[in-house]
């Protein structure tokens, strides 16, 4: 069994061995999703269930089972908690409370962008993050249709790995004027308040992409520079944000609430309420300030 120890100054013994496990699991989950996406699994039947927070398919369920089974086989359940989109709501209140007490927690979205998966945009992803005391220290984001996997460790940088095993460090763009920046946003999940905010921010252009993981990859691939999340009646969840956050930050970007505070995970409420700004980092504080001021005007 792999042992992970926290050392001083945000250093962790055993992290490289664990990130190798997480990368392998990410590729395995991506393979499962691609098989469903092409109609090669379950006779092409996605078994779509419409739920309050969005659709769930047989692909979500199988990928989730695979990820949990593989991680728990390698790492066990004594030292690690597991916070997954597909299983969290089925936990009892006592089990959810127990999970909050765990210092080490895996935060998993086996299929981020389920609607894009169903609609065949190709913009879906696998998110796997390991958080320590509420902050991510390891992250994997796999984009199955691009046949790429992005991974990061705290203080170790971000890397992109292709299906043939080639691994390359990757960094965000150096664009540093707001009028030169491009925004990546959801095709859906935008209410009128959010649309008003986007119309008043002076970005050079806007791109529309599905999964949060795919949006953040678009930033670290230097095809865009900014992503904004603004909760309305609902909010993104821990599993939407944890893995994408770390791969962006370790690629040189920033990912915070509008007030500059860090996102915290496994705090009991899995919703990430309010405004969240993710960027290449160069105009981050200014963008946060502008977004807050615009929203104040909209809400007045």
Verbal overview:
- By secondary structure, this protein is of the alpha+beta class.
- Helices cover 33% and strands 26% of the residues.
- The protein contains 8 helices and 16 strands.
- It has helices at residues 15-37, 58-75, 93-100, 114-118, 192-200, 212-220, 238-249, 284-299, and strands at 5-6, 12-13, 49-51, 54-56, 81-84, 104-112, 125-132, 135-143, 148-153, 157-162, 167-169, 182-185, 205-208, 226-230, 254-257, 275-279.
- The strands form 5 sheets. The chain has a 7-stranded mixed beta sheet, with helices on both faces. A 3-stranded antiparallel beta sheet has the order 14-16-15, with helices on both faces. A two-stranded antiparallel sheet has the order 1-2.
- A hairpin with a 2-residue loop joins strand 3 (49-51) and strand 4 (54-56).
- Helix 1 (15-37) runs antiparallel to helix 2, helix 5 packs across helix 8 and helix 6 runs parallel beside helix 7.
- The longest helix is centred in the N-terminal third of the chain and has 23 residues, at 15-37.
- The radius of gyration is 18 Å and the shape is globular.
- The protein starts with a strand and ends with a helix.
- The model has no long low-confidence stretch (mean pLDDT 92).
